[in-house]
Amino acid sequence: MTAVAGAGHTLTDVIASGDACNHAIFTDEELAVGVGRLVASGLMQHATPDRLKLTPAGVKLARRRKGGLIEQVGSVLRLLGSVELVEGRWDVQADSIAAAVRAYQDRSRRR
Whole-prediction pTM value? Predict the structure, then answer.
């Protein structure tokens, strides 16, 4: 996620960020487990039913990341290694993910 603090990001934004970093679309399982862990660990929260945002602890951690977009992946992974991650699962519906992927793909085609 490019902005550290603010109103949060839609699922479409999360998918776009993942694709920008890894050149791949998250699977439903990756989203459910990844977001679930971040929420359960107190690093991310649901700003609204359709927006995710970093908690103050998540913002503090994200501000310590180093490098450009691609280098930040490794930096964030190292920073997450310093945090006790709690297992969790996000109860996101497959149709919500599919709609977000379509919105991202439509947005990408327009650019």
Answer: 0.87
The full 3-state SS of the chain, as one line of letters, equals CCCCCCCCEEHHHHHHHHHHHHCCCCCHHHHHHHHHHHHHCCCEEEEECCEEEECHHHHHHHCCCCCCHHHHHHHHHHHHCCCCCCCCCCCCCHHHHHHHHHHHHHHHHHC
Q: Which two tokens stand for residue 56?
A: 């103050």
| 23 φ/ψ sector (left φ>0, alpha ψ -120 to 50, else beta) | left
In degrees and rounded to multiples of 5, residue 43 shows phi and psi of -100, -20
Rounded CA-CA distance 95/103 in Å is 12
pLDDT tens for residues 19-33?
A: 988 889 999 999 999
Instruction: State the Cα–Cα distance between residues 30 and 35, nearest whole angstrom.
Output: 8
